[in-house]
Design goal:
Layout (H helix, E strand, L loop, with lengths): L51 E4 L20 E4 L25 E7 L3 H5 L7 E4 L25 H8 L1 E11 L4 E12 L6 E3 L34 E5 L8 E8 L2 E9 L5 E5 L10 E9 L5 E10 L23 E4 L20 E2 L3 E5 L7 E7 L2 E2 L5 E2 L4 E9 L4 E3 L12 E5 L11 E9 L14 E7 L1
Antiparallel strand pairs: 1-2, 3-4, 3-5, 5-6, 6-7, 8-11, 9-10, 9-12, 12-13, 14-16, 15-23, 16-23, 17-22, 17-24, 18-19, 20-23, 21-22
Keywords: Signal
Protein name: WxL domain-containing protein
Length: 471
């Protein structure tokens, strides 16, 4: 398996080391940047932007089209830029993936294509690995996206390679030891069953910007009529004059140097109209500039007129605020409750045959500890003693776990055939999983016995042991 190393641009001298705030998915997106978030109906709908793939050995761009096939062990790293391998994903201070939400862990992950599996973190992802490498701007620098590096999870990447299919593949920022996702950026990946060869669907990118856009410095002269809104309203009146009567024009605002596009407005027969700036983040008691423009056949913006306005706000009436707090507690309980039956009769069985299944009975595990490190419920058996000091090896016992009450991250173990294999895990709790104090995880199992072809006639006895072990 290849584990990618951080590629240094200086090693080949082909790509400039441009550390500029880390990325393509920033507030001022440019043509060619992934749309943030990815639009509904796209392959990675809802992704907080996108990322680009690079060859981990050379640092050269690797995903210029969506038809390229990658090998599962091909060394691949990620970047927020299509041309700069050092552009950090989710760099400070804009944090285009997580915004104002803080996070404590960074993972590369593969999940089913739905928000429930995506947001469940390590409890619901198919496969993942930790990526803690931060760049100089506090973002994720050159994360490893080599398919074989996704080794953690219920079956690691091996299960998805065996099954093939289409998944989400990306970088997630998490809290609570990886089980709570603060934000994620991802692409669609299609894996060929068995081989692990895969393709990556391109992100939806920003389109080309107009050839000529209106800059704030151009807003001199050409004023409109009064654009002063009333107190405690966000509706800005527009007096375009009779020259603009019945026209549908584009509307923009410059606020604190930033441009905000507000769509279009249709003026009436007197050239009057209005636009609501609610939700656009415009500060109260500060001057802003509203402007109207048209587009020519080439996409250039032609200024029609502009005016300054100020939002005047007072405290909303009949409103009060109250701080809320709550403290989550736990019992510290970590316990195993075994079946009530202390003796189980597996019935009669002919030599070289397997007995009918017999239920062990409900086994309950409680995990409500301070640190949810996970656990294994192991099952073992002694050898069977028979008539005349004869014995039958413990492997003659088989079991098939069945989870009857499970919680996220808690799974029943694999079965063992009677007469074959070795004893293992009856049930398992992944790190971060819990049951709470009162309702435990319940698992039962069907026990079987394969009588050796030379087994002594008569009753055989053994001791079955269950061990609850913390990870």
């Amino acid at each position: 398996m290849n584990i990618s190393k951080k590629w240094q641009a200086a090693a080949a001298g082909a790509i400039a080391l441009a550390l500029v705030g880390g990325g393509a998915s920033a507030a001022n997106a440019a043509p060619g940047d992934p749309i943030n978030p990815q639009p509904e109906g796209s392959a990675a709908a809802g992704s907080k932007g996108g990322f680009f793939l690079f060859d981990g050995n050379t640092g050269e761009p690797a995903d210029s089209d969506g038809t390229r096939s990658y090998a599962k062990d091909e060394t691949i790293i990620g970047s927020a830029s299509a041309t700069n391998v050092d552009a950090e994903i989710n760099a400070a201070a804009t944090r285009p993936v997580t915004g104002a939400t803080t996070f404590t862990g960074v993972y590369a992950f593969i999940s089913e294509k739905n928000s429930t599996d995506l947001m469940g973190g390590i409890n619901t992802w198919n496969a993942y690995h930790v990526d803690a490498a931060a760049g100089p701007n506090g973002g994720t620098l050159q994360p490893s996206l080599t398919l074989e590096s996704f080794v953690d999870g219920p079956g690691g990447i091996a299960d998805d390679i065996a099954a093939g299919g289409t998944y989400w593949y990306g970088i997630a920022y998490t809290n609570l030891n990886g089980v709570q996702v603060a934000g994620a950026v991802y692409r669609e990946i299609t894996i060929e069953p068995g081989t692990g060869n895969y393709t990556v669907t391109p992100s939806v990118l920003e389109g080309a910007a107009p050839v000529d856009v209106i800059e704030e410095a151009e807003l001199v002269g050409a004023e409109l009529g009064s654009a002063e809104p009333a107190v405690d309203t966000t509706v800005v009146p527009i007096a375009g004059g009779t020259a603009n009567a019945n026209k549908t024009l584009n509307v923009g605002v410059y606020a604190a140097g930033a441009r905000i596009d507000l769509g279009t407005v249709t003026l009436d027969a007197d050239g009057n109209g209005s636009v609501d700036v609610a939700g656009e983040g415009l500060a109260a008691n500060a001057a802003h500039k509203l402007f109207l423009y048209e587009l020519d056949g080439e996409g250039d913006e032609i200024l029609v007129g502009w005016d300054a306005f100020t939002l005047t706000a007072t405290l909303p009436p009949n409103q009060d605020t109250t701080d809320l707090s709550v403290e989550v507690t736990n019992s510290g309980k970590f316990a195993l409750v075994a079946p009530a039956a202390q003796s189980i009769d597996l019935g009669d069985v002919r030599r070289n045959r397997v007995s009918a299944p017999v239920d062990l009975g409900a086994v309950t595990v409680f995990d409500d500890r301070d640190v949810l490190s996970g656990w294994n419920l192991n099952i073992t058996s002694s050898a069977f003693t028979g008539p005349g000091a004869t014995t039958v090896e413990a492997s003659a016992l088989g079991y098939a776990p069945v989870g009857t009450t499970l919680f996220p991250g808690i799974t029943a173990g694999a079965p063992k055939l009677a007469g074959e294999g070795t004893f293992g895990v009856l049930a398992e709790g992944a790190p971060g999983s819990a049951t709470g104090e009162f309702e435990g995880a319940v698992v039962d199992t069907e026990l079987t016995f394969k009588a050796p072809i030379n087994a002594a006639k008569g009753v055989h006895n053994a001791v079955l042991t269950l061990d609850l072990v913390s990870k």
